[in-house]
Amino acid sequence: MSDVPSAIGRVAEPGAPRALPVLDVADIAKTFGGAKALRGVSFSVAPGEVHGLLGKNGSGKSTLVKILAGFHAPDHGGRLAFNGEMVDLPLKPGDFRRLGMSFVHQNLGLVPSLTVLENLRFAHLTTARSGYIDWRAERAAAREALGRFGLSIDTAERVDRLSPVERALLAIVRAFEEIRVACAATGKPGLVLLDEPTPFLPREGVEKLFGLIRSIAATGSSVIFISHDIDEVMTITDRITVLRDGALAGALETAKATHEEVVEMIVGRRIARLGTPGHQAAVAKPAFLRVSGVAGGALAATDLVVGKGEILGVTGLIGSGYEELPYLIFGARPCRAGALDFVDGAHVPLAAMSPKRALDLGLALLPGDRQGASGVDSLPIVDNMFLPDVDRFFRFGLLNRRAMVREAFALGTRYEVRPNDPAMKLSALSGGNAQKVLIARWMNRNPRLLLLDEPTQGVDVGTRVQIFAALRAAAAAGMSVLCASSDAEQLAEICDRVLIFARGRVCAEITGPDLTKDGIAEACYASIDLTGRTAPAAPALAS
Ligand SMILES: Nc1ncnc2c1ncn2[C@@H]1O[C@H](COP(=O)(O)OP(=O)(O)OP(=O)(O)O)[C@@H](O)[C@H]1O
């Protein structure tokens, strides 16, 4: 690369790109009300570079992305150059497309009521000069785009009928396609911004995504990758920029940095990883709940036992059925067969299970789909925290709102919700802080069994440790936990035992010294033999 200074004339920081940057921003600031979300951030992205943008929940990453998308106007004084061209701020809606930027936002930005085809070709269809649409050609183009990335989603399917994984992959393919088309038109590199694209993706989906990212970078276009998964960031990025409290905390060349250095730059202090729990002791815990013959969705007649005070992990490859288990047990999705037997003698056929019954039995469910099924974006934090047990705050027919707010503030302090303002709408919180509110809601009810689906998606590395510690403390006090997750590191850190699923059944059980991130990942892959068939199911679990 030639030694070309940054387009806006700043002195390049050590390790900064020497070729003309694709993106070069300086002094970007943003204030919401009185609160500063960004405080004069500057950084640049080289052509063909995969650039990690990291920081704790609420550090300003999404705000920066939304400024580049023209969604937020920055405060006065910031500068932006794209491929050497100075661009006026604020960007106008749609400017990003002309420049050659595309985005995958945390909420994916798809229109649920439209089809895969309409979502994929949205930009093309809405900007086409002619009023005539050749649907046959559009279908062919959409199939070709999906096929280029090895996907075979039905183009006529409505997006709200796709699985979360398919939705995430569709949004990512759309962003990559937009760049491909824009670059062909301008002859210049483009930029794809991926704002936490991986929480919904199981391991093989992440590997597919990394393949796509590498192929885009190989054409000279650049990628900004935002994630809380440090291992993923270390795997896929060339350089890393870290934000802390809206300001630049530092920049690193990935190949020269260690995991610990990156974490320290994010958090601002050294934090120790949690050790593995006492696996041997945990296996001996007495049974709290026996699940027999649960069948529904991709799950086929599965038996398992959850111990009292046990944290049981369930995982597997895409479509193996483990991800359905929390919803089936909670009565949130229809079951074909199966029953629950509790330690106190209660017997509940799953066909008769409903969320109301589950709550009465002392169960709680934290769904993975934060925006769709878990929280209500338009309601304040306080209401989101106490939606399931608002009755508790009624006295003589009157709602004691002041007590609710007081308790919400105390919970927000315990779970480090930032900003800790119970009156603030959930939608104004960063993604990770919204997840903390929802975790606080269910932990605060002190359930007998807490069912979790990807509990720490979007949660930063420091808070993750706190949530794990809170889960362990609750389990030590007798709460049972069933955690469905594709995050092997998370399972290894918190679980006493992990069940691996394949083709709708339990095919392996991991405990003791094998309960490591690599051990879990290997067991997932070992569940498929070389002919692509899944391994036979393991014998029934002992209680
Ligand atoms: N529309 C808004 N109104 C008020 N405050 C906002 C709004 N959007 C963001 N903020 C605030 O700006 C700060 C930065 O939020 P941002 O979403 O950029 O964080 P983030 O780094 O992307 O976090 P996360 O990792 O949790 O997604 C937070 O304090 C957030 O509450």
UniProtKB/TrEMBL annotation:
| Coiled-coil region(s) | none
Ranges for domain ABC transporter come to 23-270, 283-528
Ribonucleoprotein among keywords: no
Q: Which PROSITE patterns match?
A: ABC_TRANSPORTER_1, ABC_TRANSPORTER_2
Alphabetical UniProt keywords: ATP-binding, Nucleotide-binding, Repeat, Sugar transport, Transport
InterPro entries recorded: AAA+_ATPase, ABC_carbohydrate_import_ATPase, ABC_transporter-like_ATP-bd, ABC_transporter-like_CS, P-loop_NTPase
CDD domains under this entry?
Answer: ABC_Carb_Monos_I, ABC_Carb_Monos_II
Annotated GO molecular function terms are: ATP binding; ATP hydrolysis activity
The text of the family note is: Belongs to the ABC transporter superfamily.
Full protein name: Ribose transport system ATP-binding protein
Q: Provide the species name.
A: Prosthecomicrobium pneumaticum
